[in-house]
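W.,

You were right to be curious about this one. When I first looked at the sequence I had no strong expectations either way, so I just let the prediction run and decided to look at it fresh. Below is the sequence, 285 residues in total, followed by the output.
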Amino acid sequence: MLKLKYIIVDKIPPAELRYLRQNLEENRELELVELDKEKEECREKKLSSFPPENSIFLSTEGTELLRMKKQGMTVVGFTEPEQEMKPEFSAADMLVEGFAEIDGEFLTQVYQRNHHLPWTILETKRCIVREITLEDIDDLFALYSWEGMTEYLEPLYDYEKEKEYQEAYIENMYGFYGYGMWLVIEKETGNLIGRAGIEHREELGGELELGYAIGTPYQRQGYATEVCLAILEYAKNYLECDKLNCLIEEGNLVSEHLAERLGFTLGEEPVINGKHMKRYVRRFD
């Protein structure tokens, strides 16, 4: 089973290692393994005892990062600020310049990205918001098949093209930005009940837009408000956004009322691709 269990550190400066120990103290699911003081033969024996598929390797040595990457481990390189980048560091799945803010959640996300596992973005009382995977495509088509779902939404492509699109989206949007449109899963049933997230909107000059859609059978039950409020907090506190937009097609009164409940205010009313839209804006203090 793909799950991070071991954080293996090698030749990390003592001060930085202390930060890492402190940040991992309360995480009982992860084991911190320190190789720095091991003799070479003991070091190699110990290192080989940890399954690469369950481990992440942290080091200042580019050659070691490259070696462990070839063995199938997720690898994180530590480099001093303004230090000349060594070619071997290109093997790293992530580079960091300090461990003061590096914790188990961060390392788990690096590990998950390397193994193409979806991130769980947040949880609410009733829902889990997570990234999409290719295994979700059938459920996505089922969601969009409900009557009225595409009245104000762009429909999905045909099956194979949608699968190709989502594969590229996972790699480029999630992989590069770390955010995008996510899935909304109902905790009680495990069912996909909607989508929500944050994307760049070309028509707004690349500014970020909050998007949301709840499946027809789950509408008017407060799911959209619950999930979007949590995403707003995530955008403010985690992504450090200063504002978000909502573009709503004229006539979509339900979405307009939701935007207002979420604290958005009406701005301009542009015409985009022949459709009359309303731009709502939410600024963060």
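Here's what jumped out at me. Residues 213 and 219 are 9 Å apart (CA to CA). And, maybe more interesting for your project: The domain at 120-283 is CATH 3.40.630.30 (Aminopeptidase).

Coffee later to discuss?

I.
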